[in-house]
Amino acid sequence: MIWDLHCHLSGVDGKTVDERIAQLMVYADRMGVERLVFFMGWPFATDPTPEQFRKQNDQVLQAISHWHNRAFGFVYLNAKYVDESIAELDRCVKNGPMIGVKLWVASRCNDPSIDPIIKRAAELKALIYQHTWYKTGGNLIGESTPGDLALMAKRHPDVPLICGHTGGDYELGLRAIQDSPNVYAGIGGSDPTAGITEMAVRTLGADRILYGSDIGGRSFSSQLAKVQGADIPEVSKRLILGGNLKRLLTPILKEKGIKV
Amino acid sequence: MICDVNVYLSRWPFRRLPCDTTSELVSKLKRNQISRAYAGSFDGLLHKDIRAVNQRLYDDCKSQGANLLLPVGSINPALPGWEDDVITCHEQWKMSGIRLHPNYHEYELNSPEVKKLFAMAAERGMFIQIAMRMEDNRTHHKLMQIPDVNFEALPGLMQEQQNLQVTILNGMKSLRGASLTRLTENPNLTIEIAMLEGVGGIEKIMQQVPYEQILFGSYFPFFYLESSLNKLKESQLGMEIEKQITWENAQKRFTNT
Known about the structure:
Chain B: GO terms for molecular function: hydrolase activity. The structure holds two protein chains of two kinds. By secondary structure, chain A is an alpha/beta fold. Chain A contains nine helices and eight strands. Chain A has a single domain, classed as Alpha-Beta Barrel (TIM Barrel). Helix content of chain A is 42%, strand content 13%. In chain A, helix 1 packs across helix 2 and helix 3 packs parallel to helix 4 (115-123). Chain B is α/β, with parallel strands linked by helices. Chain B has one domain (2-253): Alpha-Beta Barrel (TIM Barrel). Chain B has helices at 22-31, 43-46, 50-64, 82-92, 112-124, 154-160, 177-184, 201-205, 225-234, 239-254; strands spanning 2-9, 34-41, 69-71, 73-74, 97-100, 127-131, 166-169, 189-192, 214-215. In chain B, strands 4-5-6-7-8-9 form a six-stranded parallel beta sheet. In chain B, strands 1-2-3 form a three-stranded parallel beta sheet. The longest helix of chain B has 16 residues, at 239-254. The interface between A and B is large, with 36 and 36 residues.
């Protein structure tokens, strides 16, 4: 059972969202990926206005509309626009089919002004994915690090949070989140550098690690290899490839009447 | 049966990698149907005693990887006396190719030494591999930020040595569009798939690069070996093309060099 936490519609051939997701499902079938979570449309907008993130969410809503129980959506928000983001959460999650939240690089997540969004997402049982990186050449102004996320996690100890890309530089990222039990490592979206998954299991335990691909810019191949090629027990691989994500999503999927 | 053109022995300078001992590496390659692997050495990046690096590489391949590992010697044309390293690789150790890291060794491909090196390799019938990058530049050690190799001078260099086979390693993350076309217009230029990304990566790159110029490379053990193996499944190539990419293209180009 493989559940993919991290899928995009950008970087894929096809003029419409329907064409793009159909093509991605062909590749998913080849690689045995059973369920996929999509967020953001195209073109990528690093600091979207409410109008822009609503448009991107409409693209995802359209894409997943023909793939019930297989493709899920996380709503893309911008923490600079708290009121509009909460309204969008209600539109796409409370009153729509989406099951999580995606926060990217518009503003850093250590800023407490994000808290109303986190609280509202938690009320709706929406899973929160925060993009993070530690870039050697320096992050974007609003780009969060795993350290930023660890600070935010302390303010919301009961809310599961996903540390996207495990900070890119996973040797730093894993250390930054190791003492934040409600933070999960999303290991997708970086080179398939050997040893990442072994270190993640040593540092966090297998039940805090989530596979994701970051397609279409990345591939299922390279990202699945991080788990399939790791020297860890088979039971751990099963948790990372799908078991953990299924467990985290079960409350909201059940609420929406989706079979897990 | 797979020929992997992009394998490294010894230790990555910044961290231990799973399978970074030759015995573990050989064992994993064998378990995954890799029956031939062209291996360079991570020591070739930073060591100045390149001859000792190549001696160890040769010894390791011979003692632990016979019939599987083929040594590809590191050459640093910025070092005094580098010509002797080429001669030793060819005549003493019978290496069929050499591997270059211009960015780690701080020279450009348009330098006079590279021109001479290409001529030497062509005269001896050796192939050349050039690694474009070794690591995502966003995860470099702060004190070791190494830019990608600039390939602008490569087409001109290759034009002067018409039978020379050149392979770009770890190039497919950044080489795209016109810059890739300009390089692959020369049929003696090959690329390998270790850093190729995007869904259905090989299928898509074949729209731009003839499959005769695509080789299987894994960049193992820095990358999980399964990454490149999976790419053969994610793209539907058909048996004939897959056989060429995974075996025949490399054999045709490198075995008799």
